[in-house]
Amino acid sequence: MSEVVRNYYENNAEHEWERLNQPYSKIEFLSTLRLFEKYLSPAGHICDVGSGPGRYSIELLKQGYQVTLFEISQQELDIASERIQELGLQAEAYICDNATNMHVLDDEAYEAVLVMGPLYHIHDDEARSKIIRETSRILKKDGVAIFAYINSWGALKAGVSEFSEEFRDLNHLYNYLGELKLDENQGFTECYFTTPVKALDEVTLGGFEIVTYAGTESFLAGMRPEVTRLYNEDRIVYDHLLQVASESCELPQYRDATEHLHIVARKR
């Protein structure tokens, strides 16, 4: 990842902590926790690559896992460390480095590895593939990884309500049917969007067997304004939708058209 990406997260560290508290993003958060519950081993060492301010690391520490946070932004790691200490928890390690430098991690050291952020930002195919191969290297035999991608098909759906003005350019709209490599002037920072088909192939070629994949927004994908309205006006309906969406995030009729794609894979 580039200095552009590093600087974005350095300057938006607190926003990243708050993002998963937002009514719409809470769907992503709960869906991800359900995947942890279903597919991670009940104990062991986990490396959270692209940990951000530690939202998921904290949940895993609460459950007794030993967690290493690996993150490009020192500001993000500082927030994570502060929050973890406030809760009386202790991480195994904090490493500030680029996900393309995972060679600093030991072979077969972890029961699980989370890569839920770095692949959003890497335009170069070989660099992404290297991260996936390195994830396999640091996993123990039969270890599980969760890889997150931004799904261009889901971003297209969300764009109708969130950034439809971009679709005045017809060619740009068509671009969402495949890969997008956006610079900091086109996306929130340098971004990589891809399709579920290509993402699954990329993970498989990196030495993994696909266990499942999920679209974390489920059937609520692309409905941010309506979900936010329900959060403010009818919390019972909102809570019910949140529960069912997170429980159904792996269903094939939903998972290919959500903004965030999570691939659960086992080391071959």
TrEMBL record:
InterPro entries referenced in this protein's UniProt entry, alphabetically: CFA/CMAS, Methyltransf_25, SAM-dependent_MTases_sf
TM helices/strands, residue ranges: none
PANTHER family: CYCLOPROPANE-FATTY-ACYL-PHOSPHOLIPID SYNTHASE, FATTY ACID C-METHYL TRANSFERASE
Record-given protein name: Methyltransferase domain-containing protein
Chain segments annotated as coiled-coil in the UniProt record: none
Domain Methyltransferase stretches: 46-143
